[in-house]
Specification:
The chain is mainly β and 107 residues long. It is built from no helices and 9 strands. Helices cover 0% and strands 63% of the residues. A 6-stranded antiparallel beta sheet has the order 1-2-3-4-9-6, with no helix packed on it. A 3-stranded antiparallel beta sheet has the order 5-8-7, with no helix packed on it.
Length: 107
């Protein structure tokens, strides 16, 4: 899905997530990563123009009363992907990790 020709820029989506490219070149990208068979690569919906962008992740969990945190450390960035190292911090309670959300912003 793509929306072109608007003064609000271009909005689109594909199997990797969603993006909004503003007329000034700023790009917002977001999506959800399935953590089953995750290979520590966040593939972006569209490439950025450089590797100077910001990525933030957050965990989505089926069990709302878990006592764990799941975090990603950025190893390095490419224009079309963020290579990460995943870390899990658990206090021993039930933790069923399923998905992580990501948000990226840059040019």
């Amino acid at each position: 899905m793509t929306s072109l020709g608007s003064n609000l820029g271009e909005f689109g989506s594909n199997d990797k997530g969603y993006y909004w490219k503003l007329p000034n070149g700023l790009i917002f990208q977001w999506g959800r990563i399935n953590l089953k068979n995750f290979n520590n690569i966040i593939r972006l919906p569209i490439p950025f123009n450089s590797t100077n962008y910001y990525v933030k992740t957050g965990i989505w969990n089926k069990n709302s009363s878990y006592g764990a945190d799941y975090d990603f450390q950025i190893r390095y960035l490419e224009k079309e992907a963020a290579y990460v190292m995943a870390q899990e911090f658990n206090d021993g309670t039930s933790f069923i990790r399923e998905y992580a959300d990501f948000f990226a912003i840059g040019y």
